[in-house]
Model the fold of this input.
Amino acid sequence: MRIGVPKEIKASEYRVGLTPASVREALMHGHEVVIERGAGQGIGVTDETYARLGATISESAAEVYAAAELIVKVKEPQPQEVAMLRPEHILFTYLHLAADPELTRTLAATGVIGIAYETVTSPEGGLPLLAPMSEVAGRLSIQAGARCLEKPMGGAGILLGGVPGVAPAEVVVLGGGVVGSHAAAMALGLHARVTLLDKSLPRLRQLDVQFGGRVTMVFATHDATERALLKADLVIGAVLVPGAAAPKLIRREILARMKPGSVIVDVAIDQGGCAETSRPTTHLDPVFVVDGVVHYCVANMPGAVARTSAQALNNATLPFMLRIAELGYRQALLSDAHLSAGLNVCQGHITHPGVAEAMGVPCAAARPLLQR
Done:
């Protein structure tokens, strides 16, 4: 199969769909790889490196889309990229469609086979292609939050870990999944006081053991969430409903009562955000202030550490990408229920329940479409 890797064009996105190691694997399996010139620049990889491995370097994204069957990206396609998609294309990337009705409509209209990293599942019930970026985003959220607490960024002027004689910051983590657990670990490592809220008692017990009782574990009722938010200096929004829009846990009326200069890092912004006041921002202009609360809502946080992120992402996506390339999308999806869970749009239909619910349309069954 001919695999295409266009250069990412979303604002401040430096990652690349395939690292040199992944390109080498694809070529050794007998596939062709076409890469847009400059696609690896953001992670320090030259066109010459890809060419030496045997990849074809194309001068434009249009050439990549024209030549390739399987398009491997990192972020959701931008409008000019959607315009280059055809029904015979297989698009393998992060999509986050539930938060973007316009992209969902236009992507479905192309007839493309859209497989989203974030909804591929594992036998253990996890999200193996989302997990590595969740790990990165969880750790970055504390770095970003600590910076936003500084006065020049609009924060209250609090050092996250305090110093002897001065209390550390109160960090509240909403959600005990991959993002939340990594955020809690980083905050704890910087000597902050950490409270983590989740709706799963088994998960809270597991994390309590993991952190040796050093993180306060709270069952996430509305009352407990409100009380935690009102004491917080830094809030990490780490909630996730796979494929669906994030629940709005931070309501506007609560925000107005939070500490002036407190910070929300809304990692859930790719799925619409967990604060009613959140809206996507970029690394070039990452923050805004509402009711005295600093909001950091960068929609591609791992892009800031592109080299680490691209390698971690490729480690996870490579086996699935090779399976699609070797079997073709129909057989790959029909033979693997976990990969099939990643199918979001197919032949003009929306095939993921969370996306269909967010769009208010019926969810099409994937198997009959794949068996046509």
